[in-house]
Write the structure tokens for this entry.
Amino acid sequence: MPIISLDPRVTRLEIPEEQGLEPIQPNEYFETYEVFHQAKSGDKHIHVGSVHAPSAEMAFLFAKEQYGRRSKSYNIWIVRSSDITSIMSEDADIFATAPEKTYREAGGYKVREKINAFRKQHGSTQQSS
Amino acid sequence: MEALSSLHKEAIREFLYKMADDQLILGHRNSEWTGLGPLLEEDIAFSSMAQDKLGHALALYTILHEHLGEKDPDTIAFTRNERELRCCHLVEYPIGGYDFSLTRHFLFDTAEHLRFEMLAGSAFEPLAQVARKIKGEIKYHVLHAQTWMKQLGSATEESKARMQSALNETMPLALGIFEASPFEAELAEHNIFAGEHELRNRWLEVIAPTVADAGLVLPDIDALTPAYGGRQGYHTEYLQPLLTEMTEVFRIDPTVEW
Amino acid sequence: MYGGGYIYDKSSPAEQHQDDPAKLAEFEAKIDRGEKIEPHDWMPRDYRKQLIRMIEQHAHSEIIGALPEGTWITRAPGFRRKLALMAKVQDEVGHGQLLYNAAETLGKPREEMINDLLSGKSKYSNVFNYPAKTWGDTAVIAWLIDAAAIVNQVTNSKGSYGPYCRALERICQEESFHLKYGHDTVVYLATGTPTQRAMVQEALTRWWPPIMHFFGPPDKVSVHTEKLMRWKVKLASNDDMRQQFLNMYVPKIWELGLTLPDPNLRKNDETGQWEYTEPDWDEFFRVINGEGPCNAERLAVRNAAEENGRWVRRALMKPVGQYTQPLC
Ligand SMILES: [Fe+2]
Ligand SMILES: [Fe+2]
């Protein structure tokens, strides 16, 4: 006797009461692709998640609905997850000293005090505007 | 829109009903896959398209209500019996396997895409507006359908065989989409719609190369008997049970808000 | 939907591992600073294991949770409800997708998770083992089960694992639509005809015990729980979340003139706590162990869905055995 359900869709599936259980094979849900979403023209693409798909085209079709069904969208990029290069967290210290390099920053150059001292010592030669 | 002559009005009414009923019934059918699809991602995509179809039905029933004096969309959709519906047989069939549902989706949505492309220039402005608005939605549906047809049509022996037999099964049903209405001349004359025959020709031009690309064989169209009758209110055994199920809650009290 | 508040947990102290003390200290300091843990960070084995178990159960709850509400997907009355219910159930499937991806970043493939669901090795939220008998049940589920799930998910979104928090952020946004839709549907029924009102009252009465079960039994104070709290895997006690839920929603139920089947339910103004009849926890465990009214059907349907989709997936499967997992 197939399952009779409160859900008429389920009843129509005619599910036998005793079903075999065939395991899902490794990789049966395909590869993963990363999804980058651009909300409107002029915006950056932002990583929003990933999809399982058998090909990049399919990944696009899936991503369009999983990541673009609610908000505004202008474009979506799809990249195979395994094509993305990144580092292990233990190597994140390669970035550690970057914020200290103040010679790269506008804020690292402060000459106002020097100018003021100079003007105090020599007097201004020009009318300040 | 200036006052419509009564014949003219009847022609548009009939035209809108059949299109809207197709969308309602197929949207309803396709919603049955929600939560039961072959892959979570596809489940989501297919559900969106089913929602779109219901949205299209709603837009068309709204035109009927606002421009042709028909009842409100909920009453139209949830209180008629099968004899009053004008959908084609293709949309009535149960969802079957994913091979059947995908093939139906491919054949129907390709026709829908071309139909609304034609209607974007219709002289009946409310319809032209809807057609222009949903153009992008249907473009996605067709892309989705074509991609699946191509991938499954050329994958394994099993998938090829399944898709081919689904195509053989759905083709005569799909031809039923183009069953001529008594008002073809009227609609063409007033530049409302160029006609089912014209649409059918355009459709064949599009599906033939896709089917070939997918590695499948298009059945010999001339040898098939199209499943006609739906446009006149004669339906398959599946429609009335579908309606009875769909309206089960609504019918408890059709006069109140749910 | 459904954070499935209660994490089914059968781990024993013997399963727990000794981790490198220096790395562990660094890890805990990072969590103390309020920083998130990312997939490639070092993490204690128990942390990984607990998170996989929790996120996986949450994901299962979403896709199994699509079934009781799906029961009425072909019968929703009117366009507005029909579209909304379809969109809601679709969102739940979407939540499952996001959560399986989050769990996968910890190294367990989606295929294995589904296999564990189908074999009964991995659990899902107990509430979905109850039937949605009428349209009123879908209204109550969409409002109150989703409300309970939101309490749980908002709490969990402050956890320590980056991918889970990000998934929950998106999920919580969608849940606010579910909650509004559910409340709207309940209000229309409760303020409608006597038939409509009776429909929603009966559904509420049916669903109250599973709702009280939702967050799980009072936590046992254990070294294990304490550790999960420290690691921000568990963020609030089951009782705290239950109190939060009662405080937010019981007044909203009562304002509709609906009644709840617990004569002892009241807020103690002195303590600020809700008092209630302790739910039947024996039943809760019976249902978890497979004896609920719908356990067998839910798994059979999920299994049938996988079975029916198998030829589609096998057709497009690549022969390469390389497993890829979502990045973050
Ligand atoms: Fe959810
Ligand atoms: Fe939800």
